[in-house]
């Protein structure tokens, strides 16, 4: 059977209210929602809708969530693939996958294409030439640039891409008419952590002693993904102890576990550094 080329979702339920904090990023990306909802409003007076925007920020801060929320808010299909899927691909497959992806999205436009970990394909060309797959990576990147340049002004497909390494990206990607907008998605501050806790506490049976301000204070440096993880871990801790509700101590235990995990992870030196 043929491998899945990319994901296509036509009924995204995520909206901006699922994305806690990130007020600045939501405000900036709201414009893209408006374009997708009513492209003619902009093109009929001769405006050109942007083709792409880069979501830049540390892992787990909600870049994928935000991209999905754009599709959910605008009620358009969401096509996604991950740059890391291309890393071990046979010659020609990456480029043809990109071609198919754009073809499908155009057929269903207005639509969003989301490319996660774009740095895996979008690294500056001609560097780190130590692996055999490099030529294939360049072919894939070139195809992506070709597709974006080939968009007419009335294509109504917007490409969002996420990275935590904007510094390594090929400058050609950031040229006008490509990913010429950058939207920063940072780690949450204390107030934002509180809001993220509110979102992820919702499905839990909570004890009286739970207080989001306290939880936000206990979790400096945590990303949204870490907080979602803490909430689930706390529920598991409570259930293991046969509790009927999740309490403060379960959260403290969960935070300890996650902090332990983060410390281990940070000791692994990335081979790319
Ligand atoms: P990566 O760079 O690792 O791909 P990312 O920035 O794309 O990460 P997401 O995949 O969007 O991060 O986040 C993972 C999960 O963490 C989300 O599905 C959600 O449950 C939670 N999360 C992250 N940020 C937020 C946020 N701002 N509000 C609510 N939940 C969040």
TrEMBL record:
Residues engaged in binding ATP: 57-64
Which subcellular locations apply to this protein?
A: Cell membrane
Q: Which domain of life is it from?
A: Bacteria
Question: Taking every annotated instance into account, which residue ranges of this chain make up the domain AAA+ ATPase?
Answer: 49-189
Assembly behavior: Homohexamer.
Family, similarity comment: In the C-terminal section; belongs to the peptidase M41 family. In the central section; belongs to the AAA ATPase family.
Function comment: Acts as a processive, ATP-dependent zinc metallopeptidase for both cytoplasmic and membrane proteins. Plays a role in the quality control of integral membrane proteins.
Protein's recorded name: ATP-dependent zinc metalloprotease FtsH
Which source organism? Answer: Flavobacterium suzhouense
Phylogenetic lineage: Bacteria, Pseudomonadati, Bacteroidota, Flavobacteriia, Flavobacteriales
| Residues included from the entire protein | 175 to 447 of 642
């Amino acid at each position: 059977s043929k491998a899945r080329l990319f994901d296509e979702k036509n009924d995204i339920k995520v909206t901006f209210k699922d994305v806690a904090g990130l007020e600045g990023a939501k405000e900036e990306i709201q414009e893209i929602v408006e374009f997708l909802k009513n492209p003619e409003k902009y093109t009929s007076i001769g405006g050109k809708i942007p083709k792409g925007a880069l979501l830049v920020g540390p892992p787990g801060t909600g870049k994928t969530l935000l991209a999905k929320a754009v599709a959910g808010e605008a009620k358009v299909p969401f096509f996604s693939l991950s740059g890391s899927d291309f890393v071990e691909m046979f010659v020609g497959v990456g480029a043809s996958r990109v071609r198919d992806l754009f073809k499908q999205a155009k057929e269903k436009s207005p639509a969003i294409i989301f490319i996660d970990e774009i740095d895996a394909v979008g690294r500056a060309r001609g560097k780190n030439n130590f692996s055999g797959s490099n030529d294939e990576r360049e072919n894939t990147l070139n195809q992506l640039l070709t597709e974006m340049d080939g968009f007419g002004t009335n294509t109504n497909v917007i490409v969002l891409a996420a990275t935590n390494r904007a510094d390594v990206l090929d400058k050609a990607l950031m040229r006008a008419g490509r990913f010429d907008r950058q939207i920063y998605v940072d780690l949450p501050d204390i107030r934002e952590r509180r809001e993220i806790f509110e979102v992820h506490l919702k499905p839990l049976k909570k004890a009286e002693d739970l207080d989001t301000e306290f939880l936000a204070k206990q979790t400096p440096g945590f990303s949204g993904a870490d907080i979602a993880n803490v909430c689930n871990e706390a529920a598991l801790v409570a259930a293991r102890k046969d509790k009927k509700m999740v309490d403060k101590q379960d959260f403290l235990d969960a935070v300890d576990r996650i902090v332990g995990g983060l410390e281990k992870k940070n000791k692994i030196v990335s081979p790319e550094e």
